[in-house]
Amino acid sequence: MTDNRHRVETFIETLDDRDWEEWVTLLDPDVVYEIPQTRERIRGRDRYLEFNQEFSRGLAPACRGAIADDTNGVAWFVWEVEGAEPADAMAFFTFADGLITSVTDFWPEPYDPPTGREHLVERC
Amino acid sequence: MTDNRHRVETFIETLDDRDWEEWVTLLDPDVVYEIPQTRERIRGRDRYLEFNQEFSRGLAPACRGAIADDTNGVAWFVWEVEGAEPADAMAFFTFADGLITSVTDFWPEPYDPPTGREHLVERC
Questions:
Q1: Which residues are CB-neighbours of B89 under 8 A, at least 6 positions away?
Q2: What's the CA gap between B45 and B34, in Å, rounded?
Q3: Per-domain residue ranges for chain A?
Q4: Which of A11, A79, B119, B122 has the highest local Cβ count within 10 Å?
Q5: Structure ipTM
Q6: Do B111 and A38 touch (CB under 8 A)?
Q7: Closest partner CB to B106 (pick from A51, A106, A113)
Q8: What are the tens digits of pLDDT across the range A51-105?
Q9: Of B38, B67, B124, the CB nearest to A113
């Protein structure tokens, strides 16, 4: 397992544990966090920590898979909040000098399948 | 670059080119394609080919990044259809014996940012 893959897994595990002391050790002080779907960006480890401490309560992320190379990584994870169906999400990472320099999150939502392709598709 | 990372990039490029002859050479005959957001599944290379030939017109995917290891890979790509804003999507892959054995697509959509976090966030 590459170090960066281990960092991706530890990122999700410590987020789930709300182990902020360990979580921040993974991050570059100038880390940039982005959510392209809302066009939101947070600059810096301190604000990103505050954001997660305040807004990730009950997220309960569990890693389904981590892939990484020397400079990039991804976590495909499942998250749930009480009373809702578990949902897939993914976080893309960049790394430099053993630290996470960016995190980009995606939160896909369920939608109805387009009609006309039922002859090729089964529902799962 | 790993062979699997090259396969991920070739998958997106040949999809963009609609080069089906090349595209199918990447796939295991029993490849499984899934879209968790719609709970759709397609079994087998032939149906998956037919699906893409019929339903991917105008998709124009462009790879933003590919990450892969010996068994798993991901493509983060941008796609656009005429008249709409380009959007991010991602495809996760599994590999065996040099062929793609599964593809799982996610198509996140824009949404309004929750209120209450403006003090930490900039818009981008």
A1: B61, B76, B77, B78, B79, B105, B106, B107, B108
A2: 13
A3: 3-106
A4: A11
A5: 0.95
A6: yes
A7: A106
A8: 999 998 888 899 999 999 999 999 999 998 777 889 999 999 999 999 999 999 9
A9: B38
User: Per residue in A11-56, pLDDT tens?
Assistant: 999 999 999 999 999 999 999 999 999 999 999 999 999 999 999 8
Distance, CA of B40 to CA of B33 (rounded, Å): 8
Closest CA relative to residue A37, chosen from B69, B106, B70, B75: B106
Edge-to-edge order in the sheet of strand A27-35: A62-68, A72-79, A87-96, A99-106, A27-35, A40-43, B122-123
Q: Which residue has the tokens 């709300």?
A: A18
Q: How many Å lie between the alpha carbon of A4 and the closest alpha carbon of chain B? A: 12
| CATH code of the domain occupying A3-106 | 3.10.450.50
Q: What residue of A is the nearest CA neighbor of B114?
A: A38
Residue of chain A whose Cα is closest to the Cα of B56: A117
Question: Using a CB-CB distance cutoff of 8 angstroms, which residues of chain A are in contact with residue B109?
Answer: 37, 108-109, 111
Distance CA A51, CA A29 (A): 15
Whether the CB-CB separation of B88 and B64 falls below 8 Å is answered with: yes
Q: Is A119 exposed, middle or buried (0-12, 13-18, 19+ CB in 10 A)?
A: exposed
Q: A67, A74, A102: which to substitute to probe chain B, counting the most B Cβ within 10 Å?
A: A67
